[in-house]
Amino acid sequence: SSATPLEDLPRGLQGVVFLKVTSVTHWTDRTFSFTCERPETLRFRSGEFAMIGLVDGERPLLRAYSIASPAWDDELEFYSIKVEDGPLTSRLRHLKVGDEIVMRAKPVGTLVHDALTPGKRLILFSTGTGIAPFASVIRDPETYEKFDEVILTQTCREVAELDYGRHLISGIADHEFLPEIVGNKLRFIGTTTREPSQLMGRMTDWLRDGRFAEATGAPLDPATDRVMICGSLDMLKDHKQICEDAGMREGSNSAPGDFVIEKAFVD
Ligand code: A2P
């Protein structure tokens, strides 16, 4: 996407592509999302992450970011936290339309259909910006070909942090071709832990005390449910334990299973 001939670039910048930013949305003082051009040759599976960032002098400053847009989209979308002293996000937060970000190499990841065996319910557990890969998965037609029911959960500290997910869901309802594909298969359960809201508490607690079963119609069941998990290391550990206690096996690209996990990447 860049007009700069590769041989003219400093060594550290060879192998990256420059992508023009097409929109920026600030959701809260802690989170924002942006879209950029997609390289014509870029192929990825919904749910994967890529190395993106900015140029710092002659070197790229890159971090892993889940691609929040679905694989069919001609733009790329990312959802990011703003870390006060974060080397990358403290600069990335000032992005404006027309600026350029850089991206390196091929997207990879485990939050993909290939890493799960067939099932009936797909349950996507996230906290904070861990919702990003699922923003991609829930807009992918393959998700609805493979599952009868898709449940996305996101737990955040404050109510305003749920806005990105709510907007995502209403965007699907208003989309030109997604409503026909998604039908009434998709549900979003957003909970808060540090500010009062209609639904409160960590989803791990909901799973343990029966609120999850009550809200969705059934407890976690390895016979019917497949799970993807994305959040902090502690969150992953707790959710993984709950899946294993329910009799589920962890999957990977080389050996598909009942649940898959990936760390939500932070600066
Ligand atoms: P809590 O407020 O009870 O810590 P963070 O910003 O720290 O990553 O947290 C984002 C959200 O994830 C918060 O609502 C937080 O709840 C929740 N959370 C943190 N740790 C866990 C965990 N181990 N399991 C489930 N949810 C968690």
UniProtKB/TrEMBL annotation:
Its EC number is 1.18.1.2. It is an enzyme of class 1 (oxidoreductase). It catalyses: 2 reduced [2Fe-2S]-[ferredoxin] + NADP(+) + H(+) = 2 oxidized [2Fe-2S]-[ferredoxin] + NADPH. Transmembrane segments: none annotated. Its cofactor is FAD. Keywords: FAD, Flavoprotein, NADP, Oxidoreductase. Signal peptide: none annotated. GO terms for molecular function: ferredoxin-NADP+ reductase activity. Residues 14-114 form the FAD-binding FR-type domain. GO terms for biological process: cellular response to oxidative stress; heme catabolic process. Pfam families: FAD_binding_6 (PF00970). InterPro entries: Cbr1-like_FAD-bd_dom, FAD-bd_FR_type, Flavoprot_Pyr_Nucl_cyt_Rdtase, FNR_bac, FNR_nucleotide-bd, FNR_type-1, Riboflavin_synthase-like_b-brl. Belongs to the ferredoxin--NADP reductase type 1 family. This is ferredoxin--NADP(+) reductase. It comes from Pontivivens nitratireducens.
